[in-house]
Amino acid sequence: MIRTLGVALLLFIFLPGIAQPQSGGEVLVGLESLSIPSAPIQKRVTKSVLELPFFDDFSRGLSYPVSTLWDGMHVLVNPSYAINPPTIGVATFDALSSKGTLHPGASTLPFSSDTLTSNTINLQYPGDTTVYISFHFQPQGLGYEPGPRDSLLLEFYNVEKDAWEGAWAAWVDFEAKKLYQHNKLRDRKLTVESDTLNRTFFRVHFPIIYEQFLNSAFRFRFRNIASISSNSDVPGLRGNSDHWNIDLVYINRGRSYTDTLLNDVTFAKPLGSILNNYESLPWLHFNQTARSAELTNPLVSQITYRNLGKQIWNITRLFQVYNHSTNQQYNHSGGNSNISGLTEFTYSRLYLYDLTSSWADSARFTFSSFLTTDFSEATAHLRWNDTIRYTQNFLNYYAYDDGSAESGYGLYGEGTQNGRVAVKFTSYKADWLVGVYMYFNRTFGDANQKYFKLAVWDDNNGKPGNVVYVQEGVRPIFTDSLNRFTLFKLNEKLWLEPGTFYVGWIQITTDMLNVGFDRNRNIRQKHFYNIDGNWKNTQFEGALMVRPVFGKLTEWPTSNPLIIERETFTLYPNPAKEYIRVDLPNPSENTIVNIYGITGQFLLSVRYSGQPIDISRLPSGTYLVRVTEGGRILGTQKLVVAKW
């Protein structure tokens, strides 16, 4: 499929950075933090001066700027925050530090946030008028919209003054649908009016002709000015991260005002999961039923690439599958064909490959695609965007999300105190549910560290049915600033037969939990919420970052010291037949008595009143009685019901 490209690159529908209901209901907000993988610790070394051309399209598959071009790692390099970028990676600027948390100096007033500084570049070309800098930028993308006082800046270093000088700036007013640009060196201003500002990449292109910059010690930097929202009443909704994305940063000689295209072919989209329904599923569940449902037969490699220039290129397509457990790789070719200038091409290649693993309980495969063509040494700097990779993991959990949260989701406001959120899963093997991963975004002052009930439901004609498991006294815990997934171990593992089940939470406050929301995957029809007794599909397109864990835990659950059982209670009679009594040392009106099946199914819940609790409907067997107070677990005891 080939289509002509316009000057601006467009994709997706608009979704506001923050959606807040008039009364209680669903909320989708921007982020106070990002999940930024750790960059390698680098020793401070003297770097050699770079020669032209300088080029980076952030397509190397790293999560941080490459040190051969940039000084520092203060922005997130990623393939997911921009909407239809020119190439497969962007550098994202926001209101966060390099550790993924809100900048220490963050304020409701504008403050200097992320900075991306180049290494030293030799521009010792006095009088040369053909040295140009160009780049593409996009406000918001899939992140949060910058406010009218927020901006993206480009600055050049003046060696003689030992100071940074403003070269260019952009700011946006989404309410007025206007984007403003100011070339400060030439005092030229440009205003663009559009209702697609958040999903358009805009090109900046101008010469570096001033003597103070044409020397052997030239440096430049991008910097953004950000501000957090002033919502002091609901700090859990304070998620203004002021996103800007940049791509195709290019400086070279021999350019001109009309030199607005790159003579290059690049991948336009990253690779994704080979599974039809999930991003990942447990390897021990990957039986024949799962393979039939999740895999195409034969498998298919589909890639999308585009020609950024006018030259016709003859492209050869190559593919590779690497099995990490056996260290074996399978290569296959996609042949070659021409791609015309300013066009985009989608190619599909069918192939046969047997997914096997020498590991007993897991598997990992890396799928790679390559574009090859004749190129000269002069264009070697453009080659990074000719390779894309995706690693398919089969571990111990089901997942819809790709591990990256572009927004935060939750229920908030009047009427949501007992609100429920559930995500639909279909398991392919009978197994023990032993835990749940949940991804929580950091909020201002960690305001979303509120208690909730972790819950599992059975299926009722495509919607959540009966509650089969409830775990109280649960709250978000942030292990560190880089890993936002919290692993909750179930107090009692739950046996589930193959089929449909639902995992989520029941709120006990009106506060928003701000759970990670992946806007690159869409499972809207499998995401439900309930605040009035009726289950409804969410209004937002994306994937809630909740992952049920089966079999056994392969890592320690996240610590939650505030929910350990600290008090005991007396339960009698035991064995019991018709009723039981519970004696507590310090009962209160917030004390709840819950009864579960021995495998964790939720059966009965009563508010403590000091009166006998009727258990006449329970058949003979062994049960668990758990007493909580304000969401804190006071104790759990076994109960034997004997009807004879």
Helix vs. strand class: mainly beta
Gap between N and C termini? 73 Å
Indicate the mean pLDDT.
87
The geometry reads as: globular
Number of E-type strands: 41
Quaternary organisation of the protein chains? single chain
Strand content: 35-45%
* Helix content bin: under 10%
Number of helices: 1
Main sheet strand line-up: 4-7-14-9-10-11-12
- Rounded to the nearest angstrom, the radius of gyration is 28 Å
Spans where pLDDT lies below 50 across 5 or more residues: 1-20, 35-39, 232-240, 561-566
Largest sheet properties: 7 strands, antiparallel
Could you describe the 3D structure shown?
The protein is mostly beta strands. It is built from 1 helix and 41 strands. It has a 7-stranded antiparallel β-sheet, with no helix packed on it. Strands 3, 5, 6, 8, 13 and 15 form a 6-stranded antiparallel β-sheet that branches. The protein has a 6-stranded antiparallel β-sheet with strand order 27-26-29-24-31-32, with no helix packed on it. Strand 18 (313-323) and strand 19 (328-339) form a beta hairpin. It starts with a strand and ends with a strand. The model is unreliable at 1-20, 35-39, 232-240 and 561-566 (pLDDT under 50).
Keywords:
644 residues; mainly beta; seven-stranded antiparallel sheet; six-stranded antiparallel sheet; 1 helix; globular; disordered N terminus
Q: What secondary-structure arrangement, pairings included, does this model have?
A:
Elements lengths: L1 E3 L20 E5 L24 E3 L13 E2 L4 E3 L11 E4 L17 E8 L13 E8 L11 E8 L4 E11 L4 E6 L4 E6 L8 E6 L12 E7 L17 E9 L12 E3 L20 H7 L4 E9 L5 E11 L4 E12 L3 E9 L11 E10 L14 E8 L12 E6 L7 E8 L3 E9 L12 E9 L2 E12 L10 E12 L2 E9 L7 E4 L8 E4 L5 E2 L5 E2 L1 E5 L19 E3 L6 E5 L7 E7 L4 E6 L5 E2 L6 E9 L2 E10 L3
Antiparallel strand pairs: 1-20, 2-23, 3-15, 4-7, 5-6, 6-15, 7-14, 8-13, 8-15, 9-10, 9-14, 10-11, 11-12, 16-17, 17-20, 18-19, 18-21, 21-22, 23-30, 24-29, 24-31, 25-28, 25-34, 26-27, 26-29, 30-33, 31-32, 35-36, 36-39, 37-38, 37-40, 40-41
